[in-house]
Structure formats: C-alpha cells, structure tokens
Design goal:
alpha/beta
Length: 207
C-alpha cells in the first residue's frame, strides 16, 4: 500500500510494486511526482528518479523543508540518466533494459529500507512505441512482484503519447492508477504473465 496524490487529493492504494499515471498536463505529472518523492524522503525511503531534468523538483523539496543536498549525500535521493534503456544506435525503447534497471535498484537498495522509483515514460515510450510500452509494463509487474515489500515504481505517461487501445491495456494491468486528476481503482487487474503471453503471441510471426 502507498499514498498517491492527484489533483490535491490523497488516497491510500494498492500498487503491487508498480503504479502508473496517465497525465493530461505536465503540471499534473509534476505534482504527483513531487508528492511521490517528498513522501518517500519524509518516510525515510530511498528515491531514484529517472527524469530528464531535476531543478523544479529540487526547488520544491527545498520549499517543503527537505534538504536536497543532504538527501543526495546520504544516498536517499538519486537522479539517473534516462539513456541506457534505449537501444544503442537505434534510439528505440528497450523495455527489458528498463525492467532490469528497476531490479538492480531494488536489490542494491534493499538493505536500506524501501525504495521508490520514479520514471518519466514520456522520454522512453512515445508515439510508435505501444508494443514496447506494454511489454515493459507486463514484464515490470511480473518481475517486481518479488520486491513488493520494499520497492515501488511509479511510471508516468502523457495521454497525448498513447493510443486509446494502449491506455485501455495500461488500465487493465494496474490495480490502481492516477488518471488525470483522479485515482482509479481496478479490482480485477490482468495477470501480467498471461498478458505478456498474449502480447508475444500477436507480435511474433507464427510458423
């Protein structure tokens, strides 16, 4: 369970180690991201942010009474380059590299309590990356199950980057999701392993 914030409202939700946000504006995404990191640091969690720029977040934390420099020095806050999850020489999104990165962060930081991983998916899977995005989501859900007691990933998307079918599939996979300024609950999320099997069946040529 974790507290997510959207539109100024806060709710305790089940995330099963992986949550998503479908934001309609940059402001909505930033507000949820800032609260996610702020709450983590206040709780003594370690936070890894896979985002392209950090100044706005750092200024926000400072205004909330959290010293960013101290958080960096103690290892409780880290910003990572977004590049390694893209295939070298092609610029395409490699979903399995990103999942492997989450697992590494979860294992490296396990002895230090809970870890929160914030991912700005706008920089990974934009238009034309629907299959890669869904493979990432299914693989991440399945792989992170073993880390659900000490790690949570919040993957943020922009509605404008996704087709309607992709949005529906994302909502099917998550027990809870931030949609625009609301938190949506799904009592019967799809099984990620079965979902991945269907993805592979429809994308791999049949002999």
């Amino acid at each position: 369970m974790i507290v997510l914030e959207a539109g100024g409202r806060r709710a305790t939700v089940e995330v099963a180690a992986h949550a998503c946000q479908l934001a309609t504006t940059t402001h909505d995404a930033e507000a949820t991201a800032r609260a996610f990191v702020r709450d983590g640091l206040r709780a003594g969690d370690r936070c890894v942010a896979l985002v392209p720029e950090a100044p706005g977040l750092l200024e926000y934390l400072d205004g909330e009474g959290i010293d960013p420099d101290q958080a960096f020095e103690s290892g409780r806050l880290r910003f990572d380059d977004i590049g390694p999850a893209r295939t070298v020489g092609q610029g395409t999104f490699d979903p399995y590299r990103l999942v492997a990165r989450h697992l590494t962060d979860s294992c490296d930081m396990r002895t230090s309590g809970r870890v929160r991983i914030l991912v700005d998916m706008h920089w990974y899977g934009g238009p034309g990356e629907a299959e890669a995005i869904l493979r990432y989501e299914a693989a991440s859900h399945a792989a992170m199950r073993a880390h659900a007691d000490h790690a949570v990933v919040l993957a943020q998307y922009r509605f404008g980057d996704l087709s309607g079918d992709t949005v529906i599939d994302l909502l099917r996979l998550h027990p809870s999701a931030v949609v625009a300024q609301f938190i949506r609950r799904n009592p019967n999320p799809a099984d990620p392993v079965s979902f991945m099997a269907r993805l592979l069946h429809r994308t791999i040529p049949q002999q």
